[in-house]
Design goal:
The complex is a heterodimer of chains A (450) and B (178). Chain A is α/β, with parallel strands linked by helices and 450 residues long. Chain A folds into 3 domains: 2-13 and 66-183, Sandwich (Immunoglobulin-like); 212-251, no CATH class; 254-441, Rossmann fold (3-Layer(aba) Sandwich). Chain A has helices at residues 2-15, 23-42, 46-63, 233-239, 277-294, 318-329, 363-374, 397-419, 434-441, and strands at 19-21, 71-75, 80-82, 88-94, 101-106, 112-115, 120-124, 138-146, 150-154, 157-162, 168-175, 178-183, 205-221, 243-251, 254-260, 298-304, 310-315, 353-358, 378-383, 423-426. The longest helix of chain A has 23 residues, at 397-419. Chain B is 75% helix and 0% strand. In chain B, helix 2 (10-34) packs antiparallel against helix 3 (41-56), helix 2 (10-34) runs parallel beside helix 4 and helix 3 runs antiparallel to helix 4 (62-77). By secondary structure, chain B is an all-alpha fold. Chain B contains 7 helices and no strands. Chain B folds into 2 domains: 2-144, no CATH class; 148-178. The chains are: A alpha/beta (450), B mainly alpha (178). At the A-B interface, helix 2, helix 3, strand 5, strand 7 and strand 10 of A face helix 4, helix 5, helix 6 and helix 7 of B.
Chain lengths: 450, 178
């Protein structure tokens, strides 16, 4: 519905503009008129030769005035995009009868990579006479690939058309920009380690106790309540007593993602280039959520930010993963105004695997992690302040020294955090959580993973 | 103007260089024909400045002023009305006008469609051929001035233009009428 409204709005704007003559046509007409007069006055017939090309061009241009009523429509493509993916916007133009060329220019906006380099494209409208007339539009494709997650603006676009010899132009018409939600690219993330503490009765993790599932456990005597299809007939006929096939229960786990959006450290430079700590956190969250939802686990998301705290209840499946990505894409960085450790209950049930994505510089997040671990939950703090996060150039040497001192304090705080039972893991992409998850599955105390 | 050119496509830069070259060509020709030398402000200085301005801003009125100077200044600098240099000037004016027109209607950063410049080259050659025909007529009338003088010449030119216009309309008539 929104898409339809966008289309009709852009189509209406293009219809108000008419063809107009250009300075080039005016020049040809004026000089073609002045030349003979000057030639007659000065008695110089060679002036007729000199202005003859302009007179001819003026006559041909006047005779070939475009007759169509152009309309342009900007189509920015899908409502949600993924960062780093190739995306193409299009300008569809109709009513180009008599036009020779059509042009479109996509304005430069943050985090949108344009193709061609400066977002301008010109095509010939006269080489395909059927295009641009009637219902079949002439399409000008402009590459507009988002390079960073978030809400991004594509456009505005300026569209124009011109007749032969550049004598008449239509436009340029400004077509309004479009807002698109750009989802984070989670990248490859896979962990071969099972999630600890599986609960519930669906999922892909084999539990330690028998129940409904697919993996064979044992053969045992029939009990009331057993399903008839579980009866193992060969064993039953040999022993003259009904036996059934017992299985291990298939179980899932609840993975609670807590995203720390209180600070953005480093300079973001788009996907595949420099990343800020928030970039790492959002992309790691996307990767982890996609991985666990794909294998049937329930994943919830809690974004901690002073701008807007968002929660998404636990769920599983592809659609839920999509909801998580949309929520991650809307993350805004802002410091919390007030942190009350007493009110940090996140209502997480026992057995939940808490994955905290944070640069671990905020006292509030460190306190949260410690409190959750003290409650007996398995807490993994994914440190997104990695080596590749480039801090902004600090012109003030005092501020730079202060930041170095803060980093030293942070090292000490991380050691304290690990003593409280929180596993601190630096984000290194695929397999980052393998070792710590295996350790948790064995139910040892999660150790230091630096 | 200059900041725009930093993002200009190669074709746009080529068109603007062609505009400047046409003005330079006119200046060289005028300096040679008039015998005033390469330092004359009227034959060389002003055309160069106007060419530069037209190349930088091909979409405004500056090219009109520049081309007006080239056309109206030629009889002042060239003593011979039947000289072949007039044909060269016609070609330079055609180049400057066409390149200014194209540079003005396309986005600065846009690469032009394949074959468009070649297409315009052919068009310009056809137009120049018509100018060449006219120059032959001028030479002819210069040798044996017809009765009626310049008025008759003007009438002939208008008849040629009208004929070309009719021909153009005929070749572009709607398919249904054929």
């Amino acid at each position: 519905m929104e898409h339809t409204r966008e289309q009709s709005r852009s189509a209406g704007e293009g219809a108000q503009v008419r063809w107009r003559i250009t300075h080039a046509h005016l020049r040809a007409v004026v000089l073609a008129g002045l030349g003979p007069l000057a030639g007659l006055l000065l008695g110089r017939p060679d002036l007729l030769v000199i202005i003859a090309p302009l007179a001819l061009i003026a006559a041909v241009s006047a005779a070939g005035r475009p007759t169509g009523s152009p309309r342009a429509r900007f189509n920015a493509g899908a409502a949600t995009l993924t960062e780093g993916a190739e995306h193409t916007a299009a300008v569809d133009m109709t009513g180009l009868q008599g036009a020779e060329t059509a042009s479109a220019t996509l304005a430069s906006t943050p985090w949108i990579a344009r193709r061609p380099l400066h977002g301008a494209r010109t095509v010939r409208a006269d080489s395909r006479p059927e295009a641009g007339e009637g219902t079949r539009p002439l399409r000008l494709s402009l590459g507009a690939s988002p390079t960073r997650w978030g809400r991004r603006t594509i456009g505005p676009v300026r569209a124009a058309a011109a007749s032969a010899w550049g004598a008449h132009v239509w436009g340029p018409v400004t077509l309004p920009d479009r807002q698109r939600l750009v989802l984070p690219a989670g990248g490859a993330f896979d962990t071969s380690a099972a999630a600890p503490h599986p609960r519930g009765l669906v999922g892909q993790h084999r539990s330690a106790r028998p129940g409904e599932g697919s993996e064979f456990s044992s053969l045992r005597a029939f009990q009331w309540g057993d399903r008839l299809k579980r009866i193992h007939w060969p064993r039953s006929t040999r022993s003259s007593q009904l036996h059934v096939t017992a299985t291990y229960a298939d179980q899932d786990t609840h993975v609670a993602l807590i995203l720390d959006a209180q600070a953005e450290l480093g300079i973001p430079d788009g996907v595949g280039a420099g990343a800020s700590s928030l970039d790492h956190a959002v992309r790691a969250g996307a990767a982890i959520a996609e991985h666990f939802t794909r294998q049937g686990d329930r994943v919830s998301l809690h974004t901690v930010s002073g701008a807007q705290t968002r929660r998404l209840p636990a769920g599983t499946g592809r659609r839920h993963a999509g909801r998580i990505l949309q929520l991650l894409a809307q993350t805004e960085s802002a410091a919390e105004h007030r942190v009350d450790p007493e009110r940090m209950r996140l209502l997480l049930p026992p057995g939940t695997l808490v994955v905290m994505l944070s640069p671990l510089v905020s006292a509030g997040m460190l306190t949260r992690a410690a409190m959750l671990a003290r409650r007996g939950l398995s807490v993994i703090a994914v440190d997104v302040l990695t080596e590749d996060v480039q801090a902004a150039e600090e012109p003030d040497p005092v501020a730079e020294a202060a930041w170095r001192i803060r980093l030293l304090e942070r090292e000490d705080e991380l050691i304290q955090l690990q003593r409280h039972g929180v596993a601190v893991v630096p984000w290194r992409g695929p397999g980052s959580l393998d070792a710590v998850l295996r350790q948790m599955a064995r139910r040892g105390r999660p150790g230091v993973q630096r | 103007m200059i900041s725009e050119l930093r993002h200009a496509s190669a074709e746009q830069l080529g068109l603007r260089i062609a505009v400047l070259a046409a003005f330079l060509g006119w200046a060289g020709l005028a300096a040679a024909v008039s015998g005033r030398g390469p330092t004359d402000i009227w034959a060389v200085g002003i055309p160069l400045v106007m060419g530069l301005l037209a190349a930088l801003k091909p979409g405004g009125l500056l090219p009109l002023a520049g081309l007006g100077y080239l056309i109206l200044g030629w009889p002042v600098l060239s003593p011979d009305p039947a000289s072949a240099a007039a044909l060269v000037v016609a070609g330079l004016v055609l180049i400057a006008h066409t390149c200014c027109a194209l540079a003005a209607v396309f986005p600065v950063a846009a690469a032009l469609p394949a074959g468009l410049l070649r297409h315009y080259g052919i068009r310009a050659a056809v137009v120049f051929a018509a100018a060449g025909l006219l120059w032959c007529l001028v030479r002819l009338f210069q040798a044996a001035p017809p009765p009626g003088g310049a008025a008759l010449l003007l009438l002939a030119v208008l008849m040629v233009l009208a004929g070309l216009l009719l021909h153009h309309r005929w070749i572009r008539r709607p398919a249904a009428a054929q």
